[in-house]
Amino acid sequence: IFGHCILVLSWAAFPKSIVTTTTKHMKDFIRAVESIEAVNPDLQMLDVVKGLRKAAGFETNLIKQYLGDLSDAHDLVSDPSVTSYVNEVINHSLSELGKEKGVVLTLDGSNVALAPMLLGLEAGLQSTVQGLYPLSLTHNLVASFLHHVHNEQTTLSFGTKGFWDSISSPKVYTLSDLPSLATDALIIGGIDGFILGSEVSTSNHRERSLSDL
């Protein structure tokens, strides 16, 4: 059920090993999650998702409104290299030079922002259905549209695509057109998050591990 990515990638296909790579393949993020689960075996899926967000320091007023704060989130035991990698790939940002961070490359060539995907999943696990739409999709879309209205000459409204410095070893993702607050990667990640969140909110997937989705 892993949204767009499940069509091309099985989480269970990769060994539970410590991540030493810095590439931005989805499989590298999966390996990081598996290595965390291996040393935190008693945590449920929601605990791991919240712990990942805490490790990345990913918290805003909008997130608190729907998901609460991270005061009760577990401090995940993990190798420092894994924690550093998680921080890097979960936090999304756009630089003035057009570099988009927080994006990973899937096996089918799609570019996915992890932040809205994980927020949608967490909203579903908490059965916070009213937060599923804004956290995964609508907040970014509305913010991008309003920003574009006031900056028509220097931005796009939605869906700016990008390219990697290397397909075999992707590390830097650069926008190929004017920036948008709802890039192609954010929209795809949001759709995945909405699908995942909807699925886990109405099923028994809460008892499974994140890497078994």
UniProtKB/TrEMBL annotation:
Q: Where is the signal peptide?
A: 1-20
Q: Which UniProt keywords apply?
A: Signal
Instruction: Provide the protein name.
Output: Peptidoglycan recognition protein 6
Q: What lineage, starting at the top, does this entry show?
A: Eukaryota, Metazoa, Chordata, Craniata, Vertebrata
